[in-house]
Predict the structure.
Amino acid sequence: MSSPTVSATAGTRASSASRPRQRSWLGPLGLAPFSIYVLLFLALPTVLAIWSGLFTKSGEFTLANFAALGDPVILLTFWTSLWLSLLTAAVGAVVGALVCYALLGIPAHRPVRVVVDAAAGVFAQFGGVMLAFLFMATLGNGAILKDLLLSLGIDIYASGVWLYDMPGIALTYFYFQIP
C-alpha cells in the first residue's frame, strides 16, 4: 500500500503533465543578443560579399569577378590553404587523441591531469588574431623570446624567418588544434 505523501506527489505529477505548459515570452528574448550577433557579423557580411561578387558598383549583374579564380596565384593560395588545413587537422587529431589516451590512465584529481585539462581548455580557445599576435610578439622579428634566445647564442632565424612561412603557420595551427 502506498503512503499518502507518495500518492499526492504522483497525483501532482500526473495533473501537471496533463496541463499544457505556458510559454514565456522571455525565452525568445534570451536569443536576441545571439541573433543580433549572427545578423551583424555573419549574415550581413555574407550578403555583402555575395552582392559585391555578383554585381558591379552600378548594380549590373556580372560574373567577371569569378575570372580571378583561374589565376595561378589564387589557385596556389587555395591549394596551400587546403593542404595546410588538412595537414594540421590530421596531425592535431592524432596527437590530441594520443594525449587523451595517455591521460585516461591518470585519475581526474591528479595534478598532471588537472593541469593538462586546464591548459587544453585555454589553448583550444585561444585562436585567431590573439593567437597570431601571441606568436608574432613572442617569436617574431623583434620579439621577446627571439631576442632572449639570441642573447644566449641561439639564433632561431639563422635559416630565415620561418614564422611567417608554412612551418610557422602550421605551428600556430597546431597550438590550438592539438588541445
